[in-house]
Specification:
This protein is mostly helical and 102 residues long. It has helices spanning 2-22, 30-33, 50-75. It has a domain at 1-17 and 48-75. α1 runs antiparallel to α3 (50-75). The relative contact order is 0.13.
Length: 102
């Protein structure tokens, strides 16, 4: 189950990045290129494009998978990584030499 969520999270992340990069900014008309005032700034925003809807859906899925991965990581057993490390024999210490007598 967790593997499916991780694969979905990575796939949605890549698609979300692509969807955001494909979209244009707010002032994507000829007047913005020459420093003029866009009519969109004073008029209605207009219809939401299909790409914007896809971005919202991908963002929602991304948030859901992020939250589920965060919850899953807290449910996993807590403890140290070193608890599961193979134990090795302690290195034998060489005896300390006695101080030299004068």
């Amino acid at each position: 189950m967790i593997t499916l969520i991780i694969v979905t999270h990575v796939l949605v992340s890549v698609l979300l990045i692509l969807a955001v990069l494909i979209q244009g900014g707010e002032n994507v008309d000829i007047t913005a290129a020459f420093g003029g005032v866009s009519q969109a700034a004073f008029g209605p925003r207009g219809a939401v494009t299909t790409l914007a809807k896809i971005t919202w859906v991908l963002g929602f899925i991304f948030m859901c998978t992020s939250i589920s991965l965060a919850v899953w990581s807290t449910k996993k057993g807590s403890g140290s990584v070193l608890e599961h490390a193979p134990r090795s024999a302690p290195a034998s210490k060489s005896p300390t030499p006695a101080p030299a007598k004068k």
